[in-house]
Amino acid sequence: MKIATLSIGDELTLGEIVDTNAAHIAGRLYRDGLRLQRHLTVGDSELDIEEALELLADKADAVIATGGLGPTVDDLTARSVAKLTGRRLMLNEEALAHLKRFTGVENGPLLVLNEKQALLPTKCTVIPNPTGTACGFMVIHNGRFLFFLPGVPSEMRRMLDESVMPFLLERSRHRRAVGTRVLKTFGLAEAELDDLLKGMATPEVSLAFCVSFPEIMVKLRAEGDDGEHLDWVLAQAEAVARERLRGHVYGEGDDTIDSVVAGLFRETGQTLALAESCTGGMIAARITSQAGSSAWFREGAVTYSNEAKHRLLGVPPEQIAAHGAVSSETARAMAKGARQAAGSDIALAVTGIAGPDGGTPEKPVGTVFIALATRSGCHAKGYRFSGGRDEVRTLTSFTAMDWIRRHLMSQLPPSPAAGTAQPT
Q1: Are 81 and 125 in contact (CB under 8 A)?
Q2: Per-residue pLDDT for 352 more than 70?
Q3: Of 4, 142, 269, 270, which is the most buried if we count CB atoms within 10 A?
């Protein structure tokens, strides 16, 4: 079955909001073995809505449209559909009864604006809305199924699951099993990942990259008629990808760098202290965003000034004078001072120049030093991050979390190799 989607609303074409509905519908279709063929976005214009529906329905068996079903003057979807299909707009008794129940005026008159949401094309099928005022509807036009859902994401998603998907799945004669493995990586550019994974794409497994600054997701996808074989193929591909990428894969699926680090702290039982300069508490915010972080996070110090570095962390003023506040020497002293003050197992420190000012030819904007102090010693490394102030700070905090992740991983015992025998 060929399926298309249409998003309606000036707020989308003007860039005022991000269209999450289109992405959700596409993903929902794919998980059930259906493919989205194409997507369009139009503003609140009757002519544009009619033209878009006509164009999509010419090639698709079904079109799922979202938006334009509200009570205000710019909600034009129902009227556009009526004109396109040559039907009249009439007060739909089922939609009207829903409106009255939802607004609590079952025995009284509705506001004229609210009543507008019950004006639907004749000969349509109402799609119930359990969580909002606007019912959706479906019409059959030239043998195509046209579905119209509200633009409110929470309402749309439930109506899609409860009404639209069962309808489509019942009429889909052949659906293939589909599977996706998502590996989340950090530290390599897209071209480097592509080079390391060269030759992995096969007739059975496709390979794709999705950049979501500052990480890159590696997506392995497979489709087939045999779900068990498909799972085995993806497992084999994932094992190869992990081996080639080694420590640059930090998680999978819905993992975040923060949740992975939290899990490692729980597993190792180690404790942490932080000393931040250019990130201004961003790393501490990432750590404490995870439930239960009080079990491993001792304390953090934001030491922007040189005086604070000396007073709170014990960094000698003469060392800062000799090497500068942004240096590997200062970063190491900050990490050691933070660990000693907190009595933690490890301490991480960052110091850098996030910009837009403060850079020099020797230390331009984007220069950052990170240090990690443990019971066995302390090491530091310098970076030259590119981008504006926000990008530099984000890259610094993410890199710091990756340092912590790699250290905690080194404290775990080796995991036994798992067998991956092909199903019979």
Answers
A1: no
A2: yes
A3: 4
